[in-house]
Amino acid sequence: MRSAASASRIREVSLMTGTSRTRSHGMSLVEVMVAMVLLMVGMLGVVSQWPMGTTLLIASEFQTEASVLAEQHLEALNAAPFPPSSGSRVTGRYTLTWTISAGPIAETRRAVVTVRWNWQGRPYSIAMSTVIAAEL
Fold first, then answer.
1. pLDDT confidence band for 7 (50 / 70 / 90)
2. What pLDDT sits at residue 66?
3. At 38, which CATH number?
4. Mean per-residue pLDDT, 114-119
5. Which residue blocks in the chain are alpha helix, DSSP H?
6. How large is the average pLDDT for residues 40-67?
7. Phi, psi (rounded to 5 degrees) for 93
8. Of all helices (H) and strands (E), which one includes residue 124?
9. What is the tally of structural domains in the chain?
């Protein structure tokens, strides 16, 4: 055990050197406030991008649906022995138009399907084409 005199001397030395023998537990109020500000800045960044992400998600959904419709119609044109040379039809929000013309080489036909739709007042479209070989 230490005597009272030696404990008093340790306190004096600690005061002269500027060091403290007690340990700090936990975080100070300033550290907590800084952490909260940093967290809020990060959350504001995520929340501000949310509407744009939702808009892009919906736009990609429409584009995917239009691509599937175009691909299905190209397959139907390829399977038909004598498809019409041009036409159009409305499917839900989409308008499909197609044309069939002479292909790049003899005995082939080129089919082009275009899908159009409007969203948020802006027109969008996707076009797909394929070459159909004549049946032998």
1. low
2. 96
3. 3.30.1300
4. 96
5. 4-17, 29-79
6. 91
7. -85, -5
8. strand 122-133
9. 1
Do the domain assignments include residue 50?
Answer: yes
Block residue for tokens 């005199």: 5
Compute the CA torsion angle 23, 29, 33, 35 (nearest 10 deg).
20
- Long-range Cβ contacts of 91-95 (<8 Å, 24+ apart): 93/62, 93/117, 93/118, 93/119, 94/65, 94/66, 94/69
Structural domain of 128: 26-133
Average pLDDT over residues 43-48: 89
In the structure encoding, which two tokens stand for residue 81, read together?
């022995």
Q: What is the pLDDT of residue 40?
A: 95
Which tokens go with 100? 């069939």
Q: For residue 119, what are the CA distances in angstroms to 56, 85, 97?
A: 12, 29, 18
Q: Is residue 2 in a domain?
A: no
Number of Cβ atoms within 10 Å of the Cβ of 69:
20
Written as six digits, the tokens of 15 are 């005061």
Distance from C-alpha of 58 to C-alpha of 117, rounded to nearest angstrom = 13
